[in-house]
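Page 47, continued from p. 46.
Same chain as before, 942 aa.
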Amino acid sequence: MYTPYQRAYLAHWLSLSRDAEQSLTQTIASAKVDMNPHQVDAALFALRSPLSQGVLLADEVGLGKTIEASLVLAQKWAEKRCRLLLIVPATLRKQWSQELADKFALPAVILEAKNFNGARKNGAGNPFDIELAFGQPAIAICSYEFAARKQQELARIQWELVVFDEAHKLRNIYKNDGAKIARALETALKGCPKLLLSATPMQNNLLELYGLVSIIDTHFFGDLESFKARYSKPKLEPEELAQLRKRLQSICSRTLRRQVQAEGGINFTRRYSMTEPYDPNRDELELYQKVSAYLQDEEVLAIKPGARHLVTLVIRKILASSSHAIQGTLQRMIERLESKMSLADALNDYEELDDLADATGVEDEDFIDPVALQGEIDKLKDFLRLAGSIGRNAKGDALLRALDRAFDSAERLGGQRKAVIFTESVRTQTWLFEQLGAAGYRDRIVLLNGTNTDADSQQTYRAWLEKHQGSSRISGSKSADMKAALVERFRDQASIMICTEAGAEGINLQFCSLLINYDLPWNPQRVEQRIGRVHRYGQKHDVVVVNFINNANVADRRVYELLNKKFQLFEGVFGASDEILGSIESGVDIERRIHDIYQKCRSDEEIEREFDELQAQLQTQIEKRNHDARRSLLEHFDVDVVARLNMRRDQTRVALDDYQQRLLLLARMSLPQARFDGERFELDGHWHDPDWQQAEQDDARFLQPHEGMGRELIEKAKEQLAAPAAAELLFSYSPTGNGQYSNLLELLGQSGELVLEKLVLSTPKQRREHLLLAGCSDSGQLLDERTCERLLLLKSEERSTAPAFRHESTLQEQLEALRASCLKQAEAANEKYFEEETEKLDRWAEDKRIGLDIRIRQLDQEIKDARKAVRQLETLQEKMSAKKALKKLERERDDLMLAYHEEKKKIEAEEDRLLEDIEQNLELSVRHERLFSLRWRLEGTP
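Result:
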């Protein structure tokens, strides 16, 4: 029915390296994401110019910047640009890794102290060289702190893209004091293309925006002094503001929730808060006070000073969780101390230990001092006996009281009677499973943690594998598939899922609208991540968040107050807290401050005073936000954005439909044994579908171009036809349900020739491929590319492999015209890139020159004011001191004037050098190859 020539044409078409918009369609066709137009728009913004040093994506929270960045990473990966680095907060590393794997099938390696040092021991010179260190290419993921500590190793890799998540962490780089991490990363990654993600790129002043832009491109603005001189004024003139806004449009993209909502992309729900107070019993209070006093003792021998913060913080978290949890930890501590071994293994109940260690810079350290520890061990044994004697936990009873009330609230808001319960302790998780089981929920509970080795989870996993055997739902990664199995059981059968932080990373629970914080983290960003599991894109109902208040613990009450009132985490519209979260430098820093209060305060009065001070400091940070400046600089008119997004949605849908139809047609051409049914087909007992959502719904396999069967079909079709090939084909035309092709009807009964050529236009930064089709009939009629393409998509049979060609010169003329047209388009695109870069450089040079002029004028004014002041002084001593200061200003002004022309020459020389670089990066090389030549004949019925 079809020939290798047609399959080869489709295979080459499906895998062309084209401009960003067309190439992105391939990447979207391979992704398991319901892509929104603003996300495609943002990715195209990041990919639009090969000369760009990077961009800032500043979409408001809840709009999926992770998806936008992943789309850009997937596109780079498809282009075989695999040296990709993600720098993210420590707490988001696993979530990013999971997201890349689940949605885009992109491999990633999380680099941290343990595997970094392990790779070195195994002979890897630089573990950031992922392919050499770990055996296959993958995206490198690490935290800000780790990346800064490994500055030298980081700098030795020529990264093809570096993505910074929560990039507002870098915005204070312009300051001389502090910003050490930002400076280390800027130095290590100078010259690498960068993608910065931040919903809050600017909080206090314009200089923060300058800081972020300077990390991307040092030649976007002039230096700090010239930027201050031009734009950092008490009142910026409207003309200057408009100019700055226009400049930023080429490097910063920002879309708002209201704009996406107006376009119809996402509907946002609200979150509501419930609290359940409780009074701990006498034994619980005694245990808390004794363990807390032990942790406050700086003379403790068991905990070495270098790890004191980490160890005491984790023990406090476990202590606050449950007596059952601290009992297990105390037992492990005693065993480790008696064996003179590290305490690290004793803290494994807290799964976030590695994240905390990475964020605080604590690596593998021997926590044990060889001094006699028996007194401390005996004290810990006393604590252990007390913990073991506690039968009931007041907070556990509070959970049972609150559960039905919370279920009713969620149901009233339209949700299901489903709850996800978060705890920071694996042992508490097990204990809660038993308590809730005894309270009547036995067969309706799912556990989710970092390992899930329990029998119930293993049985759920085996049943899930059997149910989905052969479908695309099974990824092959046991941890990812275990999560998918447990989430599916929670969705379809269970009422309660009890999660640890590590277990819940990377999962979406938008079918559930009730979240219970059994243990409340001190880090506001962690709390937001938790709530984001249920309160996210796709949530159809308002969400209820339940927290517990310990009436006997002032510090616990103040932590809740801080998270609720200052960070507004538990009430309001989706993601309302992000604006405030972005105004703080780090959730880990707040967690450290809270921990310090617990450690040093001995009375309720001290606790109240310290929390008052912390709240006042945070309030100052939060109130410094400059809404008006940010809006006027980074945001566009809603009506313009909505119109653009509407257009993008239509364009993406049409392009994706066309691409999927051609991929399906290649399958039809290549697999005559398959049974086709509409938009899918069955082969060897398995259904395949190019629509990932339909594939998952029907337990079919996802047919995509970059992985699995789709990739095999494309590669095989290319390999089966060695270029240049030649043949004579008989095409069969018959009417279809889609109507007649009038240009083919005119050719019925005729014969002629057709050639296919691949044209490759390359620059050092970019490769673009074109398929050129030229054809004619034996009667001398020229066929346009559309007609040639329609011919190639008809059923056909091969008549001869050695036909005699008559029209080579005619076809060659057509090909030359097509090549010239493609070359003209490429040159026009390059001219546009060149103009953008030269305009940017002109503005940079102008900044530098204006900065010099303004500084000289400022000095002139200061000198004038100083002379006037000298005349008004009375004593000789005052006049002499003022004269010295005046002379210093005059010398500075004179030196600057002497250096003025020299500095202008330097600016011009740097501009010339950069222009030469641009020209080299735009130099086009042209290559073309004949894929096949055909003699054809068209027969059939009108």
